[in-house]
Hints:
The longest helix has 14 residues, at 44-57. The chain is of the alpha+beta class. The protein has helices at 12-23, 35-42, 44-57, 75-80, 83-87, and strands at 4-5, 25-28, 31-34, 63-64, 71-72. The chain is rod-shaped. A hairpin with a 6-residue loop joins strand 4 and strand 5 (71-72). The protein has one domain (4-87). The strands form two sheets. A three-stranded antiparallel sheet has the order 1-4-5. A two-stranded antiparallel ribbon has the order 2-3.
Amino acid sequence: MDAQPIERELTEDEYEEILNKICGEVYVCGLTFDSGAVLRKLDPIAFRCSQADYESELESEEWKCGCCGVVYDDEDDAEECCRKEEIE
């Protein structure tokens, strides 16, 4: 059976925190700001586009059996789920 990855979607707050960790702080006129907050406020379209790109690169942590829809933590387990029934 074909195992299907379950895509994880981040909230905007989660992605903002990720940007803060990756990019650090930015300095403007002697003031310090979180980079994620700056991008989110100044260019929300770029923020959402970069969030979508980031999410598409995330590895799936859960897998669904393509036949019955049972969710597994491991792709191999999801692949094997309904194969046992096919063999019998």
